[in-house]
């Protein structure tokens, strides 16, 4: 699945599969402006760190197009890029992609707005294709970890929909399935927006990979019954010491995996690692509307007037992570040393 993010350069339109409507409706959301793209990112039309990064890269091209007739092009273009970076705080791929596009602009100060648009669109396409290749490399790097008949538990959606295609955590699943390992998957439902139920199950069922849905709070029970052989999750940001921010609830899954002696792995491209952050305590954690909890998917679940905590992510300490599976291979502790040895110039 590689067509959920499309870009029509001739029409100057970013075309996204609207993930809010899955699994019952497959409709597209069209972005003509940077504001449209920001709305899509903030409302989870598109979500998942790598997919947000690809979307932001294309949105930079939309920004050049929007500003092309303005007298103060540089000032206006810079402002739009800055607003784009601020649209969601936790996923590092968003800022990473925008800064790559900004660097391309600075490297070609002679470019006209139209030629800059073309350059940025082409570079976004390169970023998109590179992400697919990265996900497939993650899958190959994970094959030593997955054995015949294993059941993999995953939390949230770190599949094709969360990336440019193939997936990070689900890239591990797909690679094992393609290698004939006869694996199965348990997908946590992932409250409050049910990305596991709506998106992970949709992807895997569509691909013919056996998947069973589980309530978030059944994780310990399933592990205690021997139904889980390993846990693989994605990441929205990884600190320099290996602490990892991922969808809320991941930390709890990691604690339970440690208790039951089940290996817990994080799958993410190197672009998700933020070396400027020493540890997870410095990762900004997004807080979303309480209504996502009190009225999940638009259905009232709590009395009027009751508030709710709605942290979108939590941070899993590095000492609970058995390995970080990247597009440059499998990292083992100590992660500070392993991360410092990576090639971040690619």
Descriptive account of the structure:
- With 346 residues, the protein is of the alpha/beta class.
- 50% of the residues are buried.
- Strand 1 and strand 2 form a beta hairpin.
- The two termini are 24 Å apart.
- It has helices at residues 34-42, 49-67, 73-85, 92-107, 113-141, 169-178, 195-206, 219-224, 250-259, 291-294, 335-340, and strands at residues 5-8, 13-17, 28-31, 151-154, 184-188, 211-214, 230-233, 237-239, 244-247, 264-267, 273-274, 313-316, 323-326, 329-331.
- A seven-stranded mixed beta sheet has the order 6-5-4-7-10-13-14. The chain has a four-stranded mixed beta sheet with strand order 11-8-9-12, with helices on one face. A three-stranded antiparallel beta sheet has the order 1-2-3.
- The protein has eleven helices and 14 strands.
Summed up, what is this model?
The protein has 346 residues and is α/β, with parallel strands linked by helices. The protein has 11 helices and 14 strands.
Keywords:
seven-stranded mixed beta sheet, alpha/beta, 14 strands, globular
What's the gyration radius in Å? 20 Å
The poorly predicted ranges are: none
Q: Globular, elongated, flat, extended or rod-shaped: what is the shape?
A: globular
Proportion in β-strands: 15-25%
Q: How far apart are the termini? A: 24 Å
Order of strands across the biggest sheet?
Answer: 6-5-4-7-10-13-14
Class based on secondary structure composition and strand pairing: alpha/beta
Largest sheet: 7 strands, mixed
Beta-strand segment tally: 14
How many helices does DSSP assign? 11
Q: Provide the helix percentage.
A: 25-40%
The overall pLDDT average reads 96
Q: How do the helices and strands follow one another from N- to C-terminus?
A: EEEHHHHHEHEHEHEEEHEEHEEEH
């Amino acid at each position: 699945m590689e067509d959920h993010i499309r870009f029509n350069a001739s029409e100057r339109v970013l075309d996204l599969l609207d993930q809010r409507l899955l699994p019952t409706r497959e409709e597209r959301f069209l972005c003509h402006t940077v504001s449209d793209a920001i709305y899509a990112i903030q409302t989870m039309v598109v979500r998942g760190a790598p997919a947000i990064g690809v979307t932001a890269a294309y949105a930079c091209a939309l920004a050049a197009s929007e500003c092309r007739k303005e007298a103060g092009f540089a000032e206006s273009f810079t402002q739009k890029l800055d607003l784009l970076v601020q649209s969601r705080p936790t996923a590092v791929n968003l800022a990473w992609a925008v800064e790559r596009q900004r660097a391309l602009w600075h490297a070609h100060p002679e470019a006209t707005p139209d030629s800059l648009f073309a350059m940025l669109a082409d570079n976004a396409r390169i970023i998109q294709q590179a992400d697919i290749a990265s996900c497939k490399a993650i899958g190959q790097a994970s094959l030593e970890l997955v054995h015949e008949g294993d059941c993999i538990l995953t939390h949230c959606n770190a599949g094709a929909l969360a990336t440019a295609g193939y997936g990070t955590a689900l890239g591990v699943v797909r690679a094992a399935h393609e290698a004939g390992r006869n694996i199965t998957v348990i997908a946590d439902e992932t409250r409050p927006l049910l990305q596991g139920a709506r998106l992970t199950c949709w992807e895997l069922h569509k691909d013919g990979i056996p998947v069973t849905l589980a309530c978030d709070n059944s994780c310990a029970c399933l592990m205690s019954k021997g139904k889980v052989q390993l846990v693989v999750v994605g990441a929205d940001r990884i600190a320099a010491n290996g602490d990892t921010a991922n969808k809320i609830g991941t930390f709890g899954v990691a604690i339970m995996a440690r208790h039951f002696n089940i290996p817990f792995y994080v799958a993410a491209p190197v672009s998700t690692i933020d070396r400027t952050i020493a540890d997870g305590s410095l990762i900004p954690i997004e807080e979303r509307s309480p209504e996502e909890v009190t009225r999940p998917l638009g259905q009232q679940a709590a009395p009027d007037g009751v508030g709710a905590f709605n942290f979108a992510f939590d941070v899993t300490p590095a000492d609970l992570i058995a390995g970080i599976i990247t597009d440059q291979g499998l990292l083992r502790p100590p992660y500070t040393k392993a991360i410092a040895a990576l090639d971040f110039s690619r």
